[in-house]
Amino acid sequence: MQKELKQFIDDVFKPYGNFPAREDVTRELLANLDEKYHDLKNQGKSDEEAYKLAVDSFGDVSEIMDEIDYKQESEPSAASTVHKFKGVALEEADLAGVNLTKADFSGSAIQKAIFDNANLTGARLVASAISDASFVGANLTDAIMKSSDVHGANFEEASLVRVQLKSSSLKGASLKSAVITDSNFKSSDFTEASFEDAVITDTIFSSCSLDNASFKNATLKNVSLHYSEVKKTIFDGTKMDKVTYAFLKKTKANLDNVVVI
To answer: pTM for the full model?
Structure first.
């Protein structure tokens, strides 16, 4: 079935031509789809059922990609900062501490780039390759991340307020001591991600994979993990309000060492 899944990815990205982040993004998204498919098979789904559910969980790529101009743009004006980073290659760039308010990195390759303490308020990272980038202490208020490869990225002590995250991979990402508020994480992979010591409030994890993700010593208030895989999620020492606890109690999550506040 991997051949069919690869064909699906190729077909949905075909209309958008080449852009710097395409190879990394499609490779990571295919890996996520393949993993989702096999998880569904292990749950007893047939080949057809597993394929359909995996593809449906992926979301509407055309809706996401139509938000960016994937064609070659004309040279931006000197006053424009919103479009100057679209579809560029900035691997390992040092942008620490830079004011990047409303910067648009859609379709860009920014692996291992450094954004420590940068102001990324309202930034757009759609179909971007962001693996192993560093956002330590960065301000990502109102940032949008969709269909992006963010695995291994470092968001320690970052501020993620009203962040919209969809159909992205954050495998092994670190969000230790991050402040996450009023954010919406949908159909994304947080396998082995760390939320240790983070403060998470009014946030939704919808249809996300949290296998072996750690919320050790984190604080969760009004957090919903709707349709998310939490059976192997680590909640040792996690402090959570009664609403969050009541929701998780209905799942197969291990809550033996949580503290209800």
So the answer is: 0.80
- The verdict on 61 and 101 lying in the same domain is no
Q: Does some domain include residue 73?
A: no
**Residues 91 and 165 both lie in one domain:** yes
Domain boundaries, position 203: 79-261
Q: What is the mean pLDDT of the chain?
A: 87
Label residue 16 by pLDDT band (50, 70, 90).
low
The verdict on 189 and 163 lying in the same domain is: yes
If asked whether residues 129 and 251 sit together in one domain, one would say yes
Q: pLDDT tens-digit profile of 86-103?
A: 888 999 999 999 999 999
Handedness of CA 31, 36, 39, 40 (dihedral sign): negative
